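In this section we walk through a basic example: taking a raw amino acid sequence and producing a predicted 3D structure, encoded as discrete structure tokens. The instruction is simple. Fold the sequence below.
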Amino acid sequence: GAAAIATPPIAPIETSANGKAIFELAFYRGNRISDIEANYEDGKVIGFKAAQNEKLLKDVIANSQGAKDRIGEFGIGLNPAVTKAIGYTITDEKLIGSIHIAVGENRMMGGKNEATLHWDMVMLSPSIEVDGKTIMDNGKLRF
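The resulting token sequence is shown next.
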């Protein structure tokens, strides 16, 4: 079998995210939530929308405690054996050419967020720029 390949989870600076992110999918207890729009201001999500299961998305956030709506993790999917999302977060977040960003709890990876929620949301075929250098372009690694 293929070895699991993934970047180690990284706790980003919790106040650093600004702007809009569009995630193709997230799952909550087997329920798919699609086309999620998250608007970040100083690391906190100030608004969520979703094309599918928006009420579930908002209910989960509303019923969680602590830093439930603050950026908590950033990871890059590098596993070539994972080619599609199936609703199993452990593999979905490692899908080749994807990234995932989580909101909520992140102390397990050295972060500062204390929350009852840690929720990974997956972005397929993203472009990523770090310090002016493109490291992923439309899901293709450039390093």
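Looking at the output, two observations stand out. The first strand starts at residue 19 and ends at 28. The mean pLDDT is 90. In the next section we compare this with other chains.
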